[in-house]
Write a structure and sequence with these properties.
This protein is an alpha+beta fold. It contains seven helices and eight strands. The protein has a domain at 29-166: NADH Oxidase, CATH 3.40.109.10. α2 (33-43) crosses α5. The protein is globular.
Amino acid sequence: MTKSNNRESQYPIDPMFLDRWSPRAFTGEIIEAAELLSLLEAAHWAPSSSNQQPWRFIYALKGSEHWEKFVALLVDANQEWAKNASALIFVVSRSFTGVAGSGEEKPSYTHSFDAGAAWGYLALQARLSGFYAHGMGGIKHEEIRKTFDIPEGYRVEAGVAVGRLADKSVLSERYQAREFPSQRKPLSELAFNGRFVAD
């Protein structure tokens, strides 16, 4: 059993897993490119099937010429708070193996799974580096595809906001009420010995 960050695990784990969470309150301070690239460096060392490394990251730093375009590619509810992040990232995965358009091209069953592993590494490295990362499904997937000329065979997976933690008072009342590390279901509801249980 491990306790940290007002959370408690049922079995012993490293506290960093409890310390990682997804806040919305960010300071809006500028992040150096090298700091963000360190997070992406960790992400790209994630495990992947046959070492295909299907993840791709498109990013913008706050204050850059690309920032407003990236903010506009989030759904309105996420724009409200993510505009105060220090960086925004879109995670894209390559859904095939081999050379595009060749006889070697085959569908990749695990591309999204592998991209999710990379996001997890990014989130943990962010926390270890004094930042927080908040993953978002609330992005304009098709607009992102068009904006960046992402071809068929690539899937726009998610967005990520990265920044330093601010006091929750910077958020609207509805988000202030949700600004705390969430708990998890008991492991027994998710892990089954020798059988599967649907809910």
